[in-house]
Prior knowledge:
Blueprint: E1 11-22, E2 25-37, E3 42-46, H1 53-60, E4 68-69, E5 75-78, E6 81-82, H2 88-94, E7 99-102, H3 106-109, H4 116-128, H5 132-145, H6 151-154, H7 164-176, E8 182-186, H8 194-211, E9 214-219, H9 222-226, E10 231-236, E11 239-245, H10 246-251, H11 256-263, H12 304-308, E12 314-315, E13 322-323, H13 334-344
Amino acid sequence: MSDQAPSTPLLQVRDLSTWFKTPRGVLRAVDGVSFDLERGRTLGIVGESGSGKSVLVRTIMNLLSPNAVVPGGSEVLFDGRNVRALDAIESRHFWGTEMAMVFQDPMTSLNPVKRIGAQLTESIRFHLKLDRKAAQERALELLNQVGIPEPRKRLTQYPHELSGGMRQRVVIAIALSCSPRLLIADEPTTALDVTVQKQILDLLDRIQAETNMGMILITHDLGVVAGHADDVAVMYGGQIVEKAATAELFGHVEHPYTEALLASIPRVELASHTRLQAIEGRPPDMVRPPTGCRFAERCPYRTDRCEQDMPGLEVTDDGQHLFRCFFPVGPKHAQANSASTSIGGGN
């Protein structure tokens, strides 16, 4: 049992940066990210490919390649414990029991030449010190928990013998096998059809409600987090550009990038063959990031100031909504934005 006060967040990330040494120079994949995650809550992290979402959670898990650099001052605290300070042996005992991860592609997460049962019981026997029979029973219980039919039969099968949805359920079962207090799900519904996507997301919701674990849900789809996250953080160019409770963010968008992401979601009320809205331009080159706002080049509201100065994280009057923008698009700021753009000479 933790000796931390109940009010201490389960996860605290402070000024976290992750850089990679490349032949072209240093790539700043994550650049000064901070947030808290409370017990029993889900944080959805949203953004385009290349925005830094997956690198962020891999840094939290201490799962980085040898060419990665985490600068001094970056801090990850799990229930008050410094995760960045764990050595290799401590990390092996930390992963699975305290923090676990569901990776994007179950076919690369699962060993293709090992049976499902062997892959499920491996971590159970290592962390929980159960004998073979008890570990087998725990594996059956887990497969039942994640809704896999004929679980005893599945234990003897190989990953290629299962459907994509069942493989993803197996990956979730492995992640849950030692009852972690934090689950990180990195694009858990990639390449699955819409019906199976909903089943997987509903499964994660149910398990979280039953266990009160914290969860980080990584996705490029705002529609996914709308019904499955308590809070949403929008990432762009390695930074969090907007963060709020889910209802607040969807009801009062402040950052132009979030506005553009919402506009690009297909809507059922639109006529057939209506052209989808796309965000013009490309994400910034993080080897040579812009000096000003990372989104300025693609932003329809930009001014000279946006291209020259980096905006800091602003907060709304109630302190519940963060955004990184000089000219937020929310209704409260619309009139001020219009005046500022006229004075500043928008591009």
